[in-house]
Amino acid sequence: MAFANFFDRTATAASKVLSNFNLESYKATLSAHTIGLYFDEQAAMSREGRATLDLCVRILARLYPAVAIFGVGREAEFLAMELAALAAAINDRIDLPTDIAGSTVAIVVGKTDVTGEMKRIYIGSDGWWARLSCGAPIGSGTTSNPFGAGASACFAAANVFRFLFAAQLVCGDLDQRIDVSLFDYRQEGGPGPQLPDHIDLGDAYLAGLGAIGHGTMWALCRLAGLAGTLHTVDHDIVDLSNLQRYVMALQKDVDKPKSKLARKLLKQEGLRVIAHPLKWSDFVTERRNRNFERVAVALDNAADRVGLQASLPRWIVNAWTQELDLGISRHGFDDGKACLACLYLPSGVIKSEDERVAEELRLPEAKQEVRELLQKGEGVSESFVQRVATAFSVPYADLQPFVGQPLLGFYQKAICGGMMIGLTGIGNAGTAVVPMAFQSALAGLGLAADLVKHAAGLPIPPSTSTRINLLRPLAPVLADPRARDTSGRCICCDQDFLDAYRRKYLIGSRPGRRISAKQKLRRS
User: pTM of the full predicted structure?
Assistant: First the structure.
């Protein structure tokens, strides 16, 4: 059974969450199972059902070497062929058996049960609500709201993973029932307001077009009636290893600029999408008008998030993933609550990039050499690559193609991209966080949901943050208050920043004791 050509990155992600990770054992487990996706006419003819099935395939095809996609009924059979083609466009080595009975575990969408001995996970949705059961089919709603439908796919994929790898997880138990609303993250109550047919995003920004950004784009491209301007900001291109969790990316998208791919994916009548192949800091530098009405943040490190907050957007929604959980946070700046920078203020000693890269290449004594290579962008020498090969006890010939390439590219492919796991068979080759696809996708859905609610004038969850751990059963309370920084170090305590924010958005002065930049310097 063949694995995807980006499998090393997939193994890296798994090595971060599975105890006693061993590459050969991991491959053996995946090879021993076929994952089923079973659905009926009710799901195939429902917008929510089709959305759920689409995201299920976009997640499952990135990890599992065999997925049986089976539709019952004429429309369902046609849709099954479309979904199989999508799976092959993601992973051209995937095995797509036509017999659902051979599945070890099956995700069931619609109102018809599947026969067989496999473990069954039933999912459905109704507007904002995502639903999962281990007892009986649920059925899919008829609305055009993609949020509950997408979330149910993420919950199902997480349960499949926990089912297969329960022995290596802290809590591998399955969810017996999920009934949660992506409108406000409550787990009981009424349906919540309907999404308007027309939603004007105004002047909106999506900063970061990685895995979380792809989850956001998946939701936005399924919302008819979006209008306004959306700026997509990311300096990077799609790398092959990114296919491990970028749910909108196909094999044909490798080497495309992320911002331009986003413009293509989000193209729809009424919505103007402007691609900016830049880092956020460079994007801001080039702008004359630096008013940012609403910004969705899907960046991948703390420093960039703090820097974005310093550009003083009027309102921010932020999403993140960590090894065990994911979250969404909402931020004003002059409202007495935590700003985005409050959540990412450094504490203790922070390693520099050159120190971290040197350590992860297992050459801690070469920190100065690494620093110069990073600063100058020079290619790595044959001697340097030989030393890395020796440190990891791998054949030099496997790393020789990197000779002459910039150090950052070598590091990203060998360590972050999972190559060393493929060569050594041992996990945790580096400190880079590589989430599972279902984690990133759900974080992106939450980001899109709050962006759309804010633009539509709908209520935003009152808690600063929402936190979800998909590697164990869903917690009964998902709200995380995340208090505002009280040390006085954050820019939201700086009178100069507060005054600048109020001037930008014509906000009247508000009472409250604040400290100025000069006072902060004196204190430090």
Answer: 0.89
